[in-house]
Specification:
mainly beta; Lipocalin; 8 strands; about 10% helix
Length: about 160
């Protein structure tokens, strides 16, 4: 009887991760399915956004779409495509191409937020550090970093919706 009890305790401990590593650990892979976290997220100002796409192999592509800050591009949308990007578990990082002397680097974590349904804004959020770098006409670079929270915009359809004719 005591061998059975011991085996049951060990089984429960393994299932609940009591021996140091939780079951179904996603070390080295995405913690979320690509469909869940792919989408459009808020950026630094109203009207600006980040488009993030994750394929089934975990490759991340996307771009930042923002308003220009210079006299020559003020009010125009500028798209900064990702030069590099990675997703490891819940950790997301990207660096953009330089557009009009400006580029961005971001490192943060993806998490579920308070929204109760996938169709609501902020079902997922990405929190982390954004660094904006600007190169002037003399090739001097200035960088500014700040904390940023990007919220997933609502989707038109739930992920698992079936289309009916």
């Amino acid at each position: 009887m005591s061998k059975f009890l011991l085996a049951a305790i060990v089984a429960v401990a393994l299932v609940t991760g009591a021996f140091g590593q939780a079951p179904n650990s996603n070390a080295g892979s995405t913690a979320f399915s690509p469909d869940e976290i792919s989408g459009m997220y808020s950026f630094t100002r109203d009207g600006e956004f980040v488009q993030i796409s994750v394929d089934d192999q975990g490759k991340v592509t996307g771009f930042v779409s923002r308003f220009g800050d210079l006299e020559s591009d003020r009010g125009a949308f500028l798209d900064h495509f990702f030069k590099s990007a990675s997703l490891d578990g819940d950790a997301l990082a990207f660096a953009t191409e330089k557009v009009h002397g400006t580029w961005f680097e971001f490192k943060g974590k993806i998490s579920r937020a308070a929204a109760k349904a996938q169709g609501q804004e902020g079902y997922y959020v990405i929190r982390g550090m954004l660094t904006q770098s600007v190169s002037d006409a003399h090739k001097r670079v200035t960088s500014r970093s700040r904390e940023l929270e990007m919220k997933l915009f609502p989707r038109d359809e739930p992920l698992n919706a079936t289309k009916r004719d």
